[in-house]
Structures are given as structure tokens and as C-alpha cells.
Amino acid sequence: MTLSRFRIAAVAAAVLAVVGLSAASAHHAVDAEFDLTKTRTLKGVLTQVDWVNPHAYFHFLIRDRNGKYTEWLFQSPSPALQKRAGLPGKDEYRVGSTYSIVTNPARSGANVGTFGVVTFPDGRKLNIGWADPTFRPQ
Prior knowledge:
CATH class of the largest domain: Mainly Beta
Order of helices and strands: HHEEEHEEEE
Strand content: 25-35%
Helix content: 25-40%
Shape: globular
Number of strands: 7
Radius of gyration: 19 Å
Number of domains: 2
């Protein structure tokens, strides 16, 4: 009986290890989802912030050349990384305010990108994503 329980536990541990490793590997493949060789600069109104792990998400309305608004979603690193970038937290972002974002767009062509170099309404710039690794916050 004890040997059977041991075998079940060993099989369960092996399965969890394989699942965990594949999930971690998929999670860190940023360049699989976003084209890190391309950047776009977009300006829009912040409509919502989802301050969750493992990424924070920022929802924007972006006006195109024809004046039509489209919804965009920008993915950033974790809230902890946001804080290390010099921001105190979610409350630093003001819904209804206009921001400029340098983003790496989604490879799929969807209105999704990295939350890279962000210019706040007061002119402050922070590189909180992967868009421009050479940028230094002012």
C-alpha cells in the first residue's frame, strides 16, 4: 500500500514539473507574441488599468488617422517591476488622461502591444517595457 502511494506521488510530481516547466517557458517567450524588431508610437486615452500578476494591462482608446477610435491593450511587466521603474503603483496612472506609448506590436496584427516607453501627461518618460532597451528614464 505504501509503495502505491509513493508511485502515485512520484507520477504526480513528475507531471506537475513538466507542466510547470512548459508554462514557464511559454510565459517568457515575449518575442513569440510581440515583434521586438518593430516599434510604433501611439497616443491615446487611458480607459482602464488591470494591476495584476504576472503582467499589468493598460486599456487605451487610440485615434487613427481617420479620426476613428480603436481599443488597444498594452501588456507590461509585473506590478513589482513597475514599482522598481520608479512608480509607486496603480494610482500613478490616471484614467481619462492622454499618454504616449512606444510599443512593440503584436505579431498577430491585433491591437495589442508591449507597454514600453510611456510618456505621462506631465511629460515624464519611463521605459517600463521592452520597446526601447537603451532608453534611460529622465
